[in-house]
Amino acid sequence: MNLHHVLQAIVTVLAVINPMVCGSIFLSLTPNVDRASQRRLASKVSIGILVILGASALVGQAVLQALGISLEVFEVVGGVIIAYMGFNMLSGGSAFRPPTSKRKQGTDVQLTPLMMFAAGPGTIAAVVTLAAAHASDGSPSTAIIASIVGAMVTFAALLLAIQVGGRLGESTEAGVTRFMGLIVASMGMQFMLVGLKEFFSTQTG
């Protein structure tokens, strides 16, 4: 196993997951949830991320090939979705915060927006690409290790957000959400543009 490839994979996965943004989204999704329930939800999210990314590393490329979908197209679609979520965060987090009358208590919280960001098409595309690029011995071990580290760091970031979030006022939280929305939208656009560049290069090549 190449240590450089492992480190490269870990940095790539962490950059795409962006645990700090995940923390901001998590707080937006759980405004009325007590801390004990938030911690349980954080562990649920982290396990979900690990399962999705681990499965993507193992079988993602085979599934895309079976469906006739290229990695480049997958990356473009993932970028569009992530950019859309970021633009909604810029408008005040409406993509992640349900109406007050529909907010859930306890662990009955809709975590799909967070999972779509942390382990959505963009992240899956990155993991599948890493698995294909580094599987010189036939095993996507570097992508799996990066997925494990990514899930663990995200869990730590969610716990930190739970501790810090309780000390933030609504105006401060809204400002952080908008700033993070700019980062999310930028990441989504970058995914989309890189995917388009790679797609057209394969077509002209």
Can you lay out the helices and strands and say which pair or pack?
Layout: H1 3-17, H2 19-29, H3 35-67, H4 71-90, H5 112-118, H6 121-134, H7 141-165, H8 170-204
Helix pairs in contact: 1-6, 1-7, 2-5, 2-7, 2-8, 3-6, 3-7, 4-6, 4-8, 6-7
What report would you give on this structure?
- With 205 residues, this protein is mostly helical.
- The chain has one domain.
- Helix content is 78%, strand content 0%.
- The protein has 8 helices and no strands.
- About 7% of the residues have low confidence.
List keywords for this structure.
single chain; 205 residues; mainly alpha; 78% helix; globular
Q: Helicity level, as a percent range?
A: over 70%
SSE pattern:
HHHHHHHH
Return the structural class. mainly alpha
Radius of gyration: 17 Å
Q: What's the rounded overall pLDDT mean? A: 80
Tell me the distance between the termini.
Answer: 32 Å
Show unreliable segments: 94-107
Q: How many structural units, i.e. domains?
A: 1
Beta-strand residue fraction? under 5%
Number of helical regions: 8
Q: What sort of overall outline do the alpha carbons produce when their principal axes are compared?
A: globular
What is the β-strand count? 0
